[in-house]
Design a protein that fits this description.
Elements: E1 6-7, H1 9-16, H2 20-29, E2 36-38, E3 41-45, H3 46-55, H4 60-65
Amino acid sequence: MEADRWVEPMEVERITGKKLQTLANERYRGTGISYYKVGASVRYKIADVLSFMEQHRINLEARREG
């Protein structure tokens, strides 16, 4: 995936498993993944989506060592 690519909420749902309503709720609350809004259109930068997922990664190796 190209990091500068823009995606719609439906693709973010597919990538993250977060429901569309959850994404909408997070936008309303000002939490979750950073997004852009132009008029009524909401877009996410794929790099932001991937970064969000990486921040929530569980490192199993560190858990085993710790």
